[in-house]
């Protein structure tokens, strides 16, 4: 099982950086369970931590070794810490957590608002940004289930932190 996982992770181009898991197990029906998934960018910054979860894949794609994003049918993340940055078009990217993520709101240091930028300035800035998650138009038709996760979201000049998130997306 680990050999196939390592091969798929080495060939994939959607998630930049290094992905490791402590253990993997799979059923003949296409459910892959993992423990302690760690995703770090090329600079070593932690992008996602998932203590346990499951990925459901289309078995025909596994048999034919046709490993694409379309092979994924479902993703279940348990107790994960997920940090998302949404660009102007609400495209998802994963980023390192802020240092204030675990502080109560009363202890978070208020930061001055960033100066307003023109649309052209924001587009130039986004064009230079290196994305950690580049789905590049690949078809993804999967159900994502979050169980007791911590979700931090950055969107323009807004910052949200949600604890104990249970969702089916």
Describe the structure.
- Helices cover 15% and strands 41% of the residues.
- The chain is mainly beta and 169 residues long.
- Strands 1, 2, 3, 4, 5, 6, 7, 8 and 9 form a 9-stranded mixed β-sheet that branches.
- A hairpin with a 5-residue loop joins strand 3 and strand 4.
- The radius of gyration is 17 Å and the shape is globular.
- The longest helix has 10 residues.
Can you give the mean pLDDT? 80
Beta-strand portion reads 35-45%
Specify the biggest β-sheet. Answer: 9 strands, mixed
How does the overall form come out from the CA principal axes? globular
Low-confidence stretches: none
Give me the secondary-structure category: mainly beta
Computed Rg: 17 Å
Extended strand count? 9
Q: Give the helix level as a range of percent.
A: 10-25%
The succession of helices and strands, N to C, reads HEEEEHEEEHEE
How many helical stretches?
Answer: 3
Amino- and carboxy-terminal Cα gap: 27 Å
């Amino acid at each position: 099982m680990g050999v196939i996982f390592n091969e798929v992770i080495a060939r994939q181009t959607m998630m930049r950086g290094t992905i490791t898991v402590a253990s993997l197990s799979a059923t003949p029906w296409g459910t892959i369970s993992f423990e302690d998934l760690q995703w770090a960018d090329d600079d070593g910054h932690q992008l996602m931590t998932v203590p346990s979860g499951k990925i459901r894949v289309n078995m025909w794609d596994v048999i034919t070794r046709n490993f694409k994003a379309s092979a994924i049918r479902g993703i279940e993340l348990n107790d994960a810490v997920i940090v998302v940055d949404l660009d102007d078009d609400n495209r998802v990217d994963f980023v390192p957590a802020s240092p204030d993520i675990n502080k109560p709101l009363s202890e978070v240091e208020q930061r001055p608002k960033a100066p307003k930028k023109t649309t052209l300035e924001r587009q130039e800035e986004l064009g230079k940004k290196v994305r950690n998650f580049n789905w590049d138009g690949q078809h993804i038709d999967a159900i994502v289930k979050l169980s007791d996760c911590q979700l931090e979201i950055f969107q323009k000049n807004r910052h949200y932190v949600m604890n104990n998130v249970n969702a089916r997306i």
